[in-house]
Amino acid sequence: MMDRWGIQEVYGMHNMPGIPVGHFAIRPGAMMAAADQFEITVTGKGGHAAKPHDCIDTTVVAAHIIVAMQTIASRGVDPLKQVVVSVCTVATDSTAHNVIPQVVKMKGTARTMDFGVQDFVERRVKEIAEGTALALGAKAEVVYTRGYPVTMNTPENTEYAAEVARAVSGQVDADTAPLMGAEDFSFMLLERPGAYIFVGNGDTAMVHHPAYNFDDNVIPYGSSWYAGMVEARMPAA
User: Fold this and answer.
1) In sequence order, what are the beta bridge partners of 30?
2) Are residues 45 and 134 both part of a single domain?
3) Structural domain containing residue 122
4) How many degrees, rounded to 5, is the angle at CA 110 between CA 107 and CA 113?
5) pTM, two decimal places
6) Judging by beta carbons within 10 Å of its beta carbon (0-12, 13-18, 19+), is residue 75 exposed, middle or buried?
């Protein structure tokens, strides 16, 4: 698409609760995180809870994996670099109160702001899960899936976007804090220079929350910014 239509720059916008209506926020470099997913399947030896010595307890193995994975952020990554590793789902193949399960499955997400850190996290999730399971007599299989990449604003294009935002409202935070949420516009920024900007939605619940409410008063600011970007970056010949 980029080549077919001769697209040279890309720009996008997202409304953001917590920022006053009419205000904009942007930053050069990493704006939003990469979002990866992982699934870990731990297989041991199930059995009766009264005879754990005859089993390989997958719940204990899973618990050790979850705790050990906390060291990815706390001991493996430069503390000045952002990273989140969260195990969000744990399910066993047994719902009984007196059965040690044969299989435990875990699902989680990893959020990073740096391509090198993203590579490191993927490697460590696999090493920790497989190594911990092996040490405790079980087996762990890891499926790690790369999702959205880092939303990386090009510095020069970030300034173009901020200039237009200043012309629209005069209220621009040009060095806003990055967010660990992810954005599919990041794929476009991998292909072309550009920038992604937030427009304030006021004091409402966060997006994706059931109480979220879009403020229609945002529309003139957002549409004016888009029109201004076209005028600034695609002037008539």
Assistant:
1) 152
2) yes
3) 35-148
4) 170
5) 0.86
6) exposed
